Task: inverse folding
């Protein structure tokens, strides 16, 4: 049985989808959790629900990870409540899908700002505390399309491939401090992000997945918990693919 009691976990973008499932699995296994998203009320609602359900300490914060001021303000609250973050899951991410010929500079920039710069800004905030404690776990949520590429996702796939370089480099820098940095690359998972795809596109993806179905957020969350657990104490700079065999 995994036990994360005494650990403080921050999951970015944990009001919905995969992030919501990750934060719930950690709370279920005894961690104190920080729920975050772009709307404070939504984050507070989830935080309250988890505190009631699992009896752990929770906090809901508004944190637009693409906005440095918003990240700083959120960390004032987080540090006041918990004194720092032991396990960070960089999960928040967005898509602005369109064919490259039609892709506007703002479609490119917005996706980079959230998926890459946001990850950089949030990670900067946790490393000092982890260094002092000589213990930390950072898990970045990439995507299968960062490895395969995908039509209409030049911006998104670039960021998801970028997160792998981020993971590998940071893992090397932080290993001497016992801070492990890994990535999880989900395939197609049932969330709002994939809900917006057209039915015929969903069907064509399903045909390519050896397990014949989309994954569930919980199936990604459990792999994140594994990477944060003592079972993975000798793994760093690695990516685990959770995609039903598509890649
Ligand atoms: N679904 C998939 O098939 C799939 C596959 C591979 C990888 N992924 C990756 O997995 C992660 C989660 O995806 P998902 O499908 O769960 O997405 P989702 O259902 O669209 O949820 C996105 C989450 O990110 C938050 N968010 C959006 N913009 C943000 C910002 N600027 N700052 C902070 N939080 C922000 C949202 O919070 P609010 O609503 O509160 O603003 C929400 O909680 C993403 O990194 C995605 O790229 C997903």
Result:
């Amino acid at each position: 049985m995994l036990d994360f009691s005494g650990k403080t976990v921050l999951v970015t973008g944990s009001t919905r989808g995969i992030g919501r499932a990750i934060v719930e699995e950690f709370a279920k296994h005894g961690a104190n959790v920080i729920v975050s998203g772009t709307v404070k009320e939504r984050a507070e609602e989830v935080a309250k629900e988890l505190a009631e359900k699992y009896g752990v300490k929770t906090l809901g914060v508004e944190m637009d990870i693409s906005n440095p001021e918003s990240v700083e303000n959120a960390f004032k609250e987080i540090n006041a409540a918990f004194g720092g973050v032991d396990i960070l899951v960089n999960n928040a991410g967005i898509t602005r899908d369109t064919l490259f010929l039609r892709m506007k500079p703002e479609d490119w920039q917005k996706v980079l700002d959230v998926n890459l710069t946001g990850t950089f800004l949030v990670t900067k905030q946790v490393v000092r505390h982890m260094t002092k404690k000589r213990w930390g776990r950072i898990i970045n949520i990439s995507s299968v399309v960062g490895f395969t590429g995908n039509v209409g996702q030049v911006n998104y796939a670039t960021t998801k491939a970028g997160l792998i370089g981020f993971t590998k480099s940071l893992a090397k820098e932080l290993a001497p401090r016992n801070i492990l940095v890994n990535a999880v690359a989900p395939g197609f998972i049932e969330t709002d992000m994939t809900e917006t795809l057209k039915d015929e596109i969903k069907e064509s993806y399903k045909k390519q997945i050896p397990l014949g179905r989309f994954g569930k957020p919980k199936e990604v969350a459990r792999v994140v918990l594994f990477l944060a657990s003592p079972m993975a104490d000798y793994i760093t700079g690695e990516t685990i693919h959770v995609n039903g065999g598509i890649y």
